[in-house]
Amino acid sequence: MSELRRDPISGRWVILTPDHSRRPADFTPPAAPIVDASACPFCEGREAIAGDELLAWRTNNSQPNTPGWQVRVVPNREPALRVEGDLGQASDGLFQRHGGLGAHEVIIESPRHTDSWSTMSEEAIGRVLWAWRVRIEDLQRDFRLRSFVIVKNHGAAAGARQDHAHSQLVAYPFPPSVIESELARGMQHFAATQKCLFCDVIREEAALNQRVIAADEQVIVLAPFAPRVPFETWVVPREHAPHFHSASEGLLQAVAKHLRDLIRRLDAALLKPPFNLWVHTAPISDAAREAFHWHIEVLPRLRPVSGVEWGSGVRVNPIPPEEAAQVLRDS
Amino acid sequence: MSELRRDPISGRWVILTPDHSRRPADFTPPAAPIVDASACPFCEGREAIAGDELLAWRTNNSQPNTPGWQVRVVPNREPALRVEGDLGQASDGLFQRHGGLGAHEVIIESPRHTDSWSTMSEEAIGRVLWAWRVRIEDLQRDFRLRSFVIVKNHGAAAGARQDHAHSQLVAYPFPPSVIESELARGMQHFAATQKCLFCDVIREEAALNQRVIAADEQVIVLAPFAPRVPFETWVVPREHAPHFHSASEGLLQAVAKHLRDLIRRLDAALLKPPFNLWVHTAPISDAAREAFHWHIEVLPRLRPVSGVEWGSGVRVNPIPPEEAAQVLRDS
User: Fold this and answer.
1) Chain centre distance of CA B95
2) Distance from C-alpha of B223 to C-alpha of B14, rounded to nearest angstrom
3) Is the pLDDT of residue B65 over 90?
4) What topology is assigned to A3-23+40-83+97-330 in CATH?
5) Catalytic residue at B166?
């Protein structure tokens, strides 16, 4: 029998259908496209093709835009939004429009084409998180940029256009709707209880201990109560903090360790699935300080979103999170 | 240069990027899967496989669950929600859950495997709309079912699991989030202006006449101001009406004519694209009467949703609706 569940953080309803048949095709990811590595723009030695670097981790006194880096950040060659944009006037009767102001950057996560998060070291993943943090720190000094989303697409089925490990940073002039609705619910909860909604969820999840995949003093990794897709997993700092870019080096290194461990578990359980990873961090606003708790969401992309799911906004998921957490703990 | 636009109906922000390169692969739909028609459960003569009919259009005194029908409605064999469900108690601290109460039906739109909306007659499509209407009319008598969504997936890339023309009706015990947020904005607008938001949009669109694809006295077909995907199109009754299931025969026949015409234009412009079609109709509630305006949304499914779009809720679309409307008018 199916069950309707509402995610406490986002307010999303999800239908769990554990009695549905689990077609092998639903859970066998399609093969990755064969990309000619010799044409990859992100490999070491092709810095001129990837673009002028905004940031790089270099330890050997190498010069900018030359080989010798471990992580490198460049502008997206086809940005959705640009810092050269002009917000302009917002209102035109019913039809609100703005210039495409924002930023869109690419974080190249390794100089080597064949690296992935399951083969990279904790330190190497920690350098990726460092690059995310430093770029947001820099961009948020521009008072027009008010909200930031980090996205990592792994595999063509997850929307990646390059096999080479990379992620993207998008800066918006307002909170995008996913962040806005999380913040709105967090503010409601704070107004009613004087507590952070996410802190309350962490406390309940830890006490219940049915959906926890891994945990230590700094970080909890869990299958959320109402997961959108099979094996959706969240990586959450235990201590309340609204902004990813304010995280300490120590916390980021702990998160990197858990992320690497999680990707290895997903790879073992689901045969190296394509996935999306998102960092949710608070908009730059005082109202967000108490009501938003930064975290990372990892969603394996095992099957396409159905027309019924997309058309209603209610996702249908045959794998209950309690079962997914058990599988990942055992992987 | 890109532009940020907010859809007045849903409140969704969209980024239009007309300067992005339009990769051929982005707009060439993948080939449909080859399905063995001899195994299709929806073809005439296989009524026992498709299931016991809830409704059928029969003109020749043929018996239920035998050949001789033009449209046939059966229960979904793997329903997301069931009328046998029990809503149960809602609250469990932070974690809200319900039994999977609802309904999930399949409308088989033609007895013939090779039919599609571009080859079917206006009258045949009209019979599909009739079946949608009659089934919602029937289900809404169950006071536990409060909101209905009709979904048509055409093509594997749009999530269809059968090539045979069909659609789905899902009944929910509460408005799913897509309907809930449309209703919330409609109620805000009504409270502020005493007018229907959609009626205001129709009036502005008709006056502006930049995004109108077709129109007559009863129906307007338009590219919305902030389309989520290239060539998104809405088919809207001009007169205010909250509920699809209250539409007259005459209006449904006019809508059928415009839908057939639209699918033919999309087929010509985009080489028979996969698409999703949704009927948005008001929840069964007095509050919805003045604030919700039923309509149909058609979204070609030309490329996957990217990780950046999914992770932010802000879609990126390289084709401005003014250009899409021009292309479809000329097709």
Assistant:
1) 31
2) 14
3) yes
4) HIT family, subunit A (3.30.428)
5) yes
Contacts of B312 in chain A (CB under 8 A): 149, 151, 170, 172, 176-179
Within an 8 Å CB–CB cutoff, is residue A310 touching chain B? yes
A64-73, A133-142, B227-236, B313-322, range with the lowest pLDDT:
B313-322
Say whether pTM exceeds 0.90: yes
Question: Do residue A13 and residue B94 have CB atoms under 8 angstroms apart?
Answer: no
Please indicate whether, in this complex, the C-beta atoms of B313 and A17 are within 8 angstroms of each other.
no
Alpha-carbon distance of B317 to B322, in angstroms, equals 13
Name, in order, each residue with C-beta under 8 angstroms of B234's C-beta and a sequence gap of 6 or more: B221, B222, B223, B224, B295, B296, B297, B298
Residues in chain A: 331
pLDDT for B28:
52
Are A13 and B176 an interchain contact pair (Cβ–Cβ within 8 Å)? yes
Residue A159's pLDDT is what?
84
Query: Six-digit token pair at B196?
Result: 């229907």
Alpha-carbon span A154 to A137, nearest angstrom: 25
- Residues B197 and B183: their CA atoms lie apart, in Å, by 10
Q: Which helix (H) or strand (E) holds B197?
A: helix B197-208
> What is the radius of gyration, based on Cα positions, of chain B?
20
* CA–CA distance, B61 with B35 (Å, rounded to integer): 32
Fold of B3-19+39-83+97-330: HIT family, subunit A (3.30.428)
Tokens read off for A227: 């997961």
Distance from CA of B87 to the nearest CA of A (A): 9
Q: Are B256 and B319 contacting, i.e. CB atoms less than 8 angstroms apart?
A: no
Put residue A137 in one of left, alpha, beta given phi > 0 → left and psi -120 to 50 → alpha: alpha
Q: What is the domain partition of chain B in residue ranges?
A: 3-19+39-83+97-330
* DSSP type of residue A102: S
Reported as a single tens digit per residue, the pLDDT across A241-279 is 999 999 999 999 999 999 999 999 999 999 899 999 999
B114 and B169 Cβ atoms separated by less than 8 Å: no
pLDDT band for B30, please (50, 70, 90 cuts): low
Q: Which parts of chain A have pLDDT scores under 50?
A: 24-25, 34
State how far the Cα of A27 lies from the Cα of A304, in Å rounded to an integer.
11
Residue with tokens 């992987």: A331
